[in-house]
Amino acid sequence: MIHFDRVFKRYPNGRDALSDLSLHLDSGEMVFLTGHSGAGKSSLLKLIALIERPTRGSLIVNGQNVANVSTSKIPAFRRQIGIVFQDHKLLYDRTIYDNVALPLIIAGISAREIGRRVRAALDQVGLLGRENGLPVELSTGEQQRVGIARAVVSKPQILIADEPTGNLDPDLSVEVMNIFRRFNEVGVTVLVASHDVHLLQHFNLRRIRLEGGRVTDDGRDPAIPLFDPGKLIEREGGAR
């Protein structure tokens, strides 16, 4: 599903965010990405979503080598990926409905289908019936759930979250993670960047640890055979 092979990311200012990074996530996995601030977690997620591109190395996401995705094709590429941010990134002058509907409007989905999907997404996060309200009327935890609804309204195959519980108390953090687990249970691949010790202890999930832009522990069971990237590359072009 997601395969990094000796990936480097250097920003224009010369800072190396990722160095010789290799790791693999199988389809349907739910994984924690851990490490101290500055370890490279956000940069790794940005590469998956093609917010940034690798400087060197190979990155394959759902059968597509990101190097072969032209700029004009990035919006279509991102429709398979839901992104949840720590600070929600909601539009506070728009209704909850409009915030969740935004990706579908951009994709040109019909108004009737948008209505159906928005209500379904809000139902999944426990906010059905609140669609005509404004984000400022919601608690911090509820605003994060709106962000999750927006991330999943396009029915993505991959869900990535960058410190999604950083502003929440422990009980709300667990609640948000349980929402992610429900999506994972229906086949969505979920990658959550977090250094929340409480969450890491509460959920028994594979942990990939980064330090200085490198993987220091990929959390894989040593009994599981190593991934053969050639098999995934053979699928490239078939999964769109």
Can you describe what's shown?
Helix 3 packs across helix 4 and helix 4 (111-124) crosses helix 5. By secondary structure, the chain is of the alpha/beta class. Strand 4 and strand 5 (64-65) form a beta hairpin. It is globular and about 45 Å long. It is built from 8 helices and 10 strands. It starts with a strand and ends in a 5-residue tail after the last helix. The chain has a 6-stranded mixed β-sheet with strand order 6-7-8-3-9-10, with helices on both faces. A 4-stranded antiparallel β-sheet has the order 2-1-4-5, sandwiched between helices.
What structural keywords apply?
240 residues; alpha/beta; Rossmann fold; 2 domains; 4-stranded antiparallel β-sheet; 33% helix; disordered C terminus
